[in-house]
Amino acid sequence: MIYLKTDEEIELMRISNQLVAKTLGEVAKAVRPGVSTLELDKIAEAFIRDNGGTPAFLNYQGFPNTLCTSVNEQVVHGIPNNQPLQEGDIVSVDCGVLLNEFYGDSAYTFPIGEVAPEVKALLEATKESLYKGIEQAIENNRLGDIGHAIQNYTEERGYTVVREMVGHGIGKDLHEAPEVANYGRKGNGTKLKSGMVIAIEPMINLGKRQIVQEDDGWTIRTIDKKVSAHYEHTVAVRKGKADILSSFKFVEEVLHLQSEK
Ligand code: MG
Ligand code: MG
Fold it and tell me: What pTM was estimated for this model as a whole?
């Protein structure tokens, strides 16, 4: 069952997602060599609560933290820990918030200092593939159009698409129907309707696409231990142009300021 949201509900979801966006912006200010993912987690939790929200992932099916922090070969669902991030690492930070009864969900993969050129290229391509997918999130298109756009853009560049983990509908539940795969065929799958709100979240690997779950019961990593990138926006399907409810504006303001230093 896919719940279509009213215009009023979409505005509430924009507020939830803007809190996620600002939280990722706070995380961006702290991301540097030597910081631990647990420190990032504490910053995010405090900021969300200070702004009247509830961390969506904390205690979700027993998940122990506010953020999912997935380093290097970790794809998604990494658990924050005390290990300091090192120059050349990447960390995917996935954040969810519940506010005014609606969820927001967005993720950004940060480079730690200078990363290898092939890793930087993977980050750029993964983020761009997210926007290629979002371009397809319009009324009367189909879910396969979104997946196809992401798959085509990334595979053309020699990357691989994680198949087992997918995006999702979102609203009063963190995960609603439909599943939003990052691969697919044009014209296939459920028809998109204005008012559907979906989280699109490509997980793109430098090496092979196969993944495995770590013994902690959460962390997903690549089998070949090559790096994986992950970006996510929550978007409302609309006629002609999707409405992106989350934002990387706050993150990228911080990152650009740092790179100008
Ligand atoms: Mg997420
Ligand atoms: Mg999600």
Answer: 0.98
Q: Distance (Å, rounded) from C-alpha 40 to C-alpha 26?
A: 9
Quote the ligand 1 centre to 34 CA distance (angstroms). Answer: 24
Centroid of ligand 1 to alpha carbon of 87 (angstroms) = 25
> What is the Å distance from ligand 1's center to 261 Cα?
30
CATH class label, 7-260: alpha beta
Ligand minimally distant from the alpha carbon of residue 179: 2
Alpha-carbon distance 5 to 245, whole Å?
A: 13
Question: How far apart are the C-alpha atoms of 182 and 260, rounded to whole Å?
Answer: 34
CA of 106 to the centre of ligand 2 (A): 7
pLDDT of residue 257: 78
Distance 232 CA to ligand 2 centre (A): 7
**What would the DSSP string read from start to end of 110-142?**
EE-SS--HHHHHHHHHHHHHHHHHHHT-BTT-B
> Cα separation of 116 and 72, whole Å?
12
Confidence of residue 261 (pLDDT cuts 50, 70, 90): low
pLDDT score of 258:
81
- Residues ≥6 apart with Cβ < 8 Å to 218: 63, 77, 78, 79
Q: Is the Cβ–Cβ distance between 191 and 25 less than 8 Å? A: no
Q: pLDDT-based confidence at 259, cuts 50/70/90?
A: confident
What type of residue is 17? Answer: N
